[in-house]
Design brief:
Length: 194
């Protein structure tokens, strides 16, 4: 009896392994879900409805990243979860968590600087958590001082907690206001001449 159980268990394990999807299958399925959600999203305005539309794609990307963390597609999938949460679902709290997870897991990846910057940006401009924003902007500048977005990160860091009027020179605000007024007067004058 024991001799029959061992081969039966081996066959059972082999069959169970056959049911697991590959990273490519997870990615293709999640991409299909994302495209379908994107097409349907044009008809929705509410955040809850958007979340339901994109949930299957998010689940697929997250499963891929969890089950195949060393696969190159896992990096792409994790970044996709962050961008979907940020751009499509407009959920800055979840987006910032996803960007942080990506930046922590893939600090040398091509999009790690962007993920790090966006974590700071969302903390600052969407969530109003200035301490967290400062930490992520500083992290960006420490890790990627030569990156093309370093000046933007430094500007954002310097802008923490300051009103817009304090950040822009007084002349630029006056010129902007005059430009708008002058532009509208010029337009009216051109219309009245015809």
């Amino acid at each position: 009896m024991k001799r029959l159980c061992a081969p039966a268990l081996i066959v059972l394990f082999l069959l169970a392994g056959c049911g697991k999807k590959s990273a490519n299958e997870y990615y293709a399925e999640a991409e299909g879900e994302f495209k379908a959600a994107k097409a349907a999203a044009d008809t929705l305005r509410d955040r809850e409805g958007m979340a339901k539309l994109f949930e299957p794609a998010l689940e697929g990307y997250l499963r891929l990243a969890e089950e195949y963390p060393d696969d190159p597609l896992a990096e792409e999938a994790l970044f996709r979860t962050a961008t979907i949460r940020n751009n499509e679902m407009r959920d800055p709290e979840q987006a910032v968590l996803s960007y942080k997870q990506y930046a922590d897991r893939y600090p040398e990846a091509k999009r790690a600087p962007l993920a790090t910057f966006l974590a700071g940006y969302l903390y600052h401009n969407e969530l109003g958590r200035l301490d967290s924003a400062e930490a992520w902007y500083r992290r960006f500048l420490e890790r990627y001082p030569q990156h093309e977005m370093a000046l933007s990160a430094q500007f954002e860091l310097n802008a923490l907690g300051k009103p817009l009027e304090e950040l822009l020179p007084a002349d630029s605000l006056r010129v902007e206001k005059q430009g708008v007024a002058t532009g509208s007067k010029t337009k009216k004058a051109a219309v009245s001449q015809h």
